[in-house]
Specification:
Strand content: 25-35%
Helix content: 10-25%
Number of helices: 2
Number of domains: 2
Shape: elongated
Radius of gyration: 15 Å
Order of helices and strands: EEEEHEEEEEH
Number of strands: 9
Structural class: alpha+beta
Oligomer: single chain
Largest sheet: 5 strands, antiparallel
């Protein structure tokens, strides 16, 4: 995984299937310091080649308190509209206070959505366990 895509607070995995979820606590030259979201314990430094992105799914959108509208999901603040594209990637649109939806980006991974939301709002997405 490329360290340039990550920031503190991003969710990543140490398993290729995305089941072992951790939070980025510190970014180092050769790896990341991660913490488990369920406990205070950390993993120590994990090398980048052992870090995997988490695929963005409907379940993750619901965990981030997006509201399901049938054809897609809207962020809790009505800023973003997210729908599944034909290519399996999620398409993200700017939704709030515009006459027409403005297409922003394809998102395949959880950290990409986290970074986009933070860039637009300066706030973290809330995680609803």
């Amino acid at each position: 995984m490329d360290s340039k895509e990550l920031r503190i607070g991003n969710f990543v995995s140490t398993s290729i299937d995305g089941t072992d979820i951790y939070i980025v606590e510190e970014i180092k030259m050769h790896g990341l310091f991660l913490s488990n979201q369920k406990s205070i314990t950390d993993t120590g430094e994990v090398q980048y080649h052992n870090i995997y992105p988490i695929p963005l799914t409907a379940d993750w959108l619901l965990k981030f308190e997006f509201i399901h509208l049938g054809i897609g999901f809207v962020s809790p603040d009505d800023l973003l509209f997210v729908c599944a594209g034909n290519n399996g990637k999620y398409e993200v649109f700017l939704y709030k206070e515009v006459e027409e939806d403005v297409y922003l980006i394809h998102c395949e991974q959880v950290h990409q959505l986290q970074n986009l939301y933070f860039a637009l709002t300066g706030k973290e997405l809330n995680l609803n366990n």
